Amino acid sequence: AMILHDASDVRALSFPQFYAQWELSNMEIAGMVSMEATPGTAEGAEIAKNIVRVCEEKGSAKSPCEFLAYRGPLFGRDVEVWVTEPEENTLLCGPAYLNEMVVHEGSIFGIPRKKEWETTFEEGVPTDIRFLDAFAAFAARRIEEATEKGEMDKKDCEVKARIVRSGADINVKIEEVAMRYITSRKKKIDIRGPVFITVVGKKSL
Question: Which residues form the O-phosphoserine--tRNA(Cys) ligase C-terminal domain (predicted)?
């Protein structure tokens, strides 16, 4: 049988599911990239959506600045959520906040939709997750937790994204199967960049 199939290893022939060279398409890898934490309530989803909206509209506003993203009920309390940058002489959001996860030739990149990356987006498979989307989902979830536990009665809930060095830094989860595949193929996962977004949840007065 080995000669017939030109198999180099009898184990690969007997147990192909364990030993044969396995392939994952860009599409399959993209399907294994997701957000680790997401809001658990309709209000939380609304908060995440509005954090995204504010950052898209005001991301390059000169600081110090703050913009209201949400004011309304959450777990029976009235809350406000602000996107803020208290430091002077910078912008509301850092340069990499709109970077998007895309799978190209078996590697995962977090890159901006700019001319220099045009080919990567055209030939690759976008995951439809930007750094901003993943951070907003995480911030909303964190604000939900702080509100539900009554933490925000005592102090504001501040959530920050700073310099991203891996998917975990921005609430992005890559399934183990994809990680192993990428490593075994000597491909890369390059998710990094300065995001610098601060979100503050507080009790409405």
Answer: 99-129
